[in-house]
Amino acid sequence: MAVPSKILLTDLAAEIDRVPPNYVRPVSDRPNLQEVVTLDAAIPVIDLQGLHGDNHSQVIQQIGQACEEYGFFQIKNHGVAEELVGRMMGVAREFFKLPEEERLKNYSDDPKRTTRLSTSFNVRTEKVSNWRDFLRLHCHPLEQYLPEEEVAEFCTSVRALVLKLLEGISESLGLERGSIAASLGQHGQHMALNYYPPCPQPELTYGLPGHTDPNLITILLQDEVPGLQVLKDGKWVAVNPIPNTFIVNIGDQIQVISNDKYKSILHRAVVNCEKERISVPTFYCPSPDAVIGPAKELIDDDNPAVYRNFTYQEYYDRFWDRGLAKECCLDLFRT
């Protein structure tokens, strides 16, 4: 029986009981779900309540240790209202329940479009598809893109959280508190609403394969369904959701600015056969013309620069051209 031709996975997945061939990974590149490690505390959980109080130095130390040893951490008491988080997740869920013809009005396979619905990762270049649909939204400066009210409010609140975290990360590196933010030009912020439908054969495919994030820092909101995994000490570790927290991961640009002290870590999204999964990552980045390189204060005779200077546009273009290659794009910019 022929598989119906559907542009979006959401609509295709509702009609099939096997993974189509274009989603099947080679045997050497499958999730091996039985080998994934599950720990109670897979990544550190940091309480940000003390960031501007008596525990300030302790929280800064925790942030630095998490960036250096894990590249990932979870945050609680982050200042983004629980009700706002719930509304944002509701917007994402409602969007992917819209009729097919309504959703397709937003469809584009052009990565340069600032607002677009698409599927997989980069359908123009990839050889194997990923079990994901996504809506991409640019949201800084807000007045330029004007997403709907709930999304705009969420973007503004997450941006304030990012700027607070960047101060903490700067301080943990021994830099001036505003140092990293000052190196980003006009700044950039965009987000994705990721939808991973139930998959009849989750052992054959990925929601997203192992990759690092090309941007500066990512703030991830996820629903209650597990799916995120990070590479730690050569093993994939499941990061199960904790209510009212965000997951923070260090992107490639902070690895550069820190001159390799802090690590941008491989992570992936796996799928399951029972439940849909929704995640909302916010990607915070330099503006395209910002020149990125190791912070001058971190370079001396004993610690030479590991990376050359480059514009973020150059880096982002190389990242998209390569797709989700396992080798980190950072290697192309080493001195």
TrEMBL record:
SUPFAM superfamilies: Clavaminate synthase-like. Transmembrane segments: none annotated. Its cofactor is L-ascorbate. Keywords: Dioxygenase, Iron, Metal-binding, Oxidoreductase. The keyword Metal-binding applies. GO terms for biological process: defense response to oomycetes. Residues 187-286 form the Fe2OG dioxygenase domain. The keyword Metal-binding applies. Belongs to the iron/ascorbate-dependent oxidoreductase family. PANTHER family: OXOGLUTARATE/IRON-DEPENDENT DIOXYGENASE. This is Fe2OG dioxygenase domain-containing protein. It comes from Trapa incisa.
